[in-house]
Amino acid sequence: MGIQEKFENLLTHDRLSDRDRQFCQSLYDYYLRKKRLTAGRRRCLANLEAHYGSLPSEGLLEPELATRIRALLPKTQESSWDRGFSESILSQVESCRKLSDRQIEILAKIEERHSEAALETNRRWREAYTTDLSANAEVCARYYTASPPYFKELCNRILTQPNFIPTEKQYRGLCENKYAQKVLKAHFADPKYPAGSKVSLRASAPRRLVSLSGETHSLVEWGRSQRSANGFVLTVNAAPITTAAAGTKKYLVLFVGESIPLLVEERHLKRGRF
Questions:
Q1: What does the domain layout of the chain look like in residue ranges?
Q2: How is 36-74 classified by DSSP, letter by letter?
Q3: Please, what is the Cα angle at 26 between 23 and 31, to 5 degrees?
Q4: DSSP reduced 3-state for 79
Q5: Whole-prediction pTM
Q6: 205: buried, middle or exposed (CB in 10 Å: 19+, 13-18, 0-12)?
Q7: Predicted local distance difference test score (pLDDT) of residue 48
């Protein structure tokens, strides 16, 4: 049988997969141009002939495996990696190609992730996150956004995609480490100085504080002579916590004689005696 006839037999084979058809056509196109095949291309042609020559005239080599994959597909999320992998190996099985041990191992893991028990666990997690934990995630996401580079992509999704729900593992990594726990404790602690409280700046306050006018932030040099200034708390939790330490809740304070309020951490304030 001549080479051209071999190609024609393969390209008209009923069970030739789309991938193999494209590959076989590329080999054939090369042959038509060059009137010959390289040694490597000859081996590829021989492998295709051997594979498709050994296939049964109808049915699948592994029909039970195809049934498993078809049952799994509707459970996977559209456009997800699991869906793409499952579709790929189903095409492989339907073209009578055997799956590798590794592919079968991955298939089993995907089946486990989408079992009834796993789906129920996931449903409960989503409910718990939406009901009780999303506020924690937002506080920690704002902290890490202000203190890069950790969790950059995850924080961005939490803060910009209202319907995004992290996995339980992602949440624990973001919100249950020792730094995040300090941030959450400071954020949700009862304020020492509720809105309207009289406060004074401690001597230990930093030389520079952040002024806040509308949404515009800027650093203000706060001279030593002003460090005993008195003011009034306008807003509690006025900005995201940026330091994982005690007393880092941020207050917006308007000091007497000033026109623009300043952001001050709780640890740098004391009760005003004026």
A1: 3-53, 63-114, 118-188, 198-271
A2: S--HHHHHHHHHHHHHHHSS-SSS-S-HHHHHHHHHHGG
A3: 130
A4: coil
A5: 0.62
A6: buried
A7: 87
